[in-house]
Amino acid sequence: MPALPRERTADATLSLLSEGYRYISRRCERFETDAFETRLMLRRAVCAMGEDASRMFYHPGRFTRRHAMPPTALALLQDLGSVQLQEGREHRNRKQMFMSLMDTGSLQRITALAAAEWRVRFAAWENLPHAVMQEEAETVLCRAACRWAGLPLAEQEARRRTAEFSAMIDGAGAVGPRNWRGMRLRARTERWARRLVDGIRNGSVAVPEGSPARVIALHRASDGHLLDGKVAAVELLNLLRPTVAVARYITFSALALHAFPACRARLMEGNEAYLEMFVQEVRRYYPFFPAVGGVVQEAFEWRGMLFEPGAWVLLDLYGTNHDGRLWNDPFVFNPDRFAGWKGNAHTLVPQGGGDFFHDHRCPGEWLTIALVKDAVRLLLTEVAYEVPVQRLRVDLARMPALPESGLVVRNAIRLH
Fold first, then answer.
1. Which residues contact 353 (CB under 8 A, 6 or more apart)?
2. Where are the alpha helices (DSSP H) in 203-271?
3. Which residues of the chain have pLDDT under 50?
4. Rounded distance, CA 12 to CA 41, Å?
5. pLDDT at 83
6. Cα(146)–Cα(41) distance, integer angstroms
7. How many C-beta atoms surround the C-beta of residue 263 within 10 A?
8. Going by C-beta distance under 8 Å and a sequence separation of 6 or more, which residues neighbour residue 57?
9. CA 64: distance to chain centroid?
10. Distance between CA atoms of 231 and 250, rounded to whole angstroms?
């Protein structure tokens, strides 16, 4: 069997933390390969990128997500017992539950709720010296997501939940204080979610029939029993927190509207096809998840190389989205690249690849696209604002990444 190129270092964790999203792709370029071996967190790891690597990674049954993510990131992004850590029958059971919440009517409800929250924020902007787009988007999406789930929040509680979800997302790619803060606030949010699940089950918390919170609280596992209360609370957070994380794509969309005025001008024409292309390019171009991990379950060969059970593999999502073999001029923002695009679950992988129903692909991808498209429409047609000079650099060494300023806007005026 041919050997993978190997990074000659005792441990590359510090390199990963200092290079962030570019760590894997830089080494693939250096070694002229799609995959190489290294050590991360004192653990042997195989890092891979590209379409063929994605097909290898998402081949059914090859990988488990258990023990595939650093414990600190796992606790903030998924936690024990979540759908992403299930396999086989139980994974299919749990994934079907989440996908049932992503039908057309459900997407229409949450986008309408988000639009109403955006209009509330636009009115507030008129009386503020400035607003930070990232903070505003998180506020909008937290309130909308909770209302959609059947859990409307009072003002003080909405601020608390928004801060908690924001800290979880921001701390997931960090070590040190940013991660510790996310962990501390996650514990508080889990207690809130557990009280809600218990209340829905015993009737003390009333939520609408068919609402996402009720669906999750009363969902039965593949063995016919209700989910453990803690697990149901984790899954409720795994619906709400990723919805708040979509704020990053909205901030990046607002950044693209500012940075690429020609795109903004075309969007102002109201062409829905171009809006779809624009949002897909935002998802491809800007950083979201850096990589996804899996642990080999059964031995297999790929390109003549043997992957044995227990091997830890990291698929580079950012690198695949910027692979010059898949995308012409990958570091150029160009929505027209999606004209006539038929879709490919292994080349555009900002939220993972593979199949929605059978693999571990993020079930909220359709929700993401719907929320971002609607936010772009509203930012173009319902409010005018200025973007002052500020630090808009996106530091790819910071995970997760954002414009340094969070994108400040000022002198807002509603147009309707």
1. 54, 57, 58, 315, 320, 345, 346, 359, 361
2. 212-217, 229-245, 247-259, 261-267
3. 83, 356-360
4. 8
5. 47
6. 36
7. 20
8. 48, 63, 292, 294, 313, 315, 353, 354
9. 19
10. 30
Quickly list DSSP for 300-323.
Answer: EEETTEEE-TT-EEEEEHHHHHT-
Tokens 């609408």 map to which residue? 208
- Which CATH homologous superfamily contains domain 13-414? Cytochrome P450 (1.10.630.10)
Q: How far is CA 263 from CA 258, 272, 279, 328, in A?
A: 9, 13, 11, 18
Report yes or no: 315 and 49 within 8 Å, Cβ to Cβ. yes
Cα separation, 56 vs 174, whole angstroms: 28
Question: Domain segments of the chain: what residues?
Answer: 13-414
- Which amino acid, 49? M
Rounded Cα–Cα distance for residues 52 and 101 (Å): 31
Q: What is the Cα–Cα distance from 199 to 62, expressed in whole angstroms?
A: 39
Cβ–Cβ < 8 Å for 189, 168: yes
Q: Considering Cα of 216, then 222, then 224, then 228, what sign does the dihedral take?
A: negative
Strands 312-316 and 43-48: parallel
Which residues, 6+ apart, have CB-to-CB distance to 190 below 8 Å? 79, 230, 233, 234, 237
pLDDT of res. 366:
87
| Residue 400 preceded by cis peptide, ω within 30 | yes
Quick check: pTM over 0.85?
yes
pLDDT of residue 75: 60
Residues 257, 373: contact at Cβ < 8 Å?
no
Token pair 């379950």: residue:
297
**Whole-number pLDDT of residue 87:** 60
* Contact yes or no for 303/244 (Cβ under 8 A): no
